[in-house]
Amino acid sequence: MRLLRDGTARMFTDRRDGGRRLAGLLRERPWSDPVVLGLARGGVPVAGEVAAALGAPLDVVVARKIGAPGHPEFGLGAVTPDGPPTYDERTLAVLGLDAGDLAESCAAERAEARRRVACYQGNRTPEPRRGRDVLVVDDGLATGVTARAALGAVRAGRPRRLVFAAPVCAPDAVAALRGVADEVVCVAAPEDFRAVGQWYDDFGQTTDREVVAVLGAARARR
Q: Does this entry carry the keyword Cytoplasm (predicted)?
């Protein structure tokens, strides 16, 4: 952990560094025909390091945050390209909202999720997941609502075991994923967690081009 001039602690240089640290926890475990899925976009560079360490194929899973009306950065739910959206029902109740109030935002985010899948997959057949150990990897776990949506979509493919892994996780979110994932693996779950980006020196936005490059490099390596 590094302490910057403003007193803020950083654990990871960038997403690849976080991925290598995470891979160190996962490398020695027994896996059954594993496949690693990066949660696009920021999870893909992390997942690339994990897949390389495990000698496993790398693929992608897409879930999009559904933001609060007028405050899109405040996630109330998430949606994948197909299937029903996932909502934080407790927060909806506190705000006096229901799914109908978020229908327009949900439709827009689903359309973006489908665009991303088309961009990343192209004509390539997704890596099979049935009967395999599947690791869904992200750059961090904050509220967990996007991870829950992604895990639900992957679970429908009937993996043997479903694991969520990230370099840094909010402790409350880890607890919320139990029962959704068979296991949650984090390098760190600090009590003073506020946002994923606070733990990285470099937390710039991952682009579509970077995602495609990481996926392409993983295919070439195998």
A: no
Confidence at 70, pLDDT banded by 50, 70, 90: confident
Number of domains in the chain: 1
Strand segments (E) across 17-137:
35-40, 58-62, 64-68, 71-79, 86-87, 133-137
Domain contains 75: no
CATH code of residue 213: 3.40.50.2020
**pLDDT(6) > 70:** no
Amino acid identity at 173: A
- What pTM did the predictor assign? 0.93
Strands 86-87, 71-79: pairing kind = antiparallel
Q: Hey, is 183 helix, strand or coil?
A: strand
| CA dist., res. 172 & res. 199, Å (int) | 17
Provide the domain limits for residue 48.
2-62+122-221
